[in-house]
Model the fold of this input.
Amino acid sequence: MRLEDIRLFFQGAFDFKRMSSERIGEVLQEEIDDFLFICFSENMGIPLPISYYTLELLPYLEEEMASWELRMTDKDSVWESKVTDCPL
Done:
């Protein structure tokens, strides 16, 4: 068991590529969600004047919209998740 602990220690210390790529993927997905939320917040019931101008982006983002809407409706509260993620 001692040898297994040492192996796990070195794996955790030096296997940063796998962990960092997973974290980069998570951060990228959060950034895409934030961008789509700002652009198309009227879909969630939050009126913003910017939505009129972001309609031009809709043809380019239509593939992302279906999965984004599912992710946003699965969340309990979009605002709660964003506020709890902020370090104060």
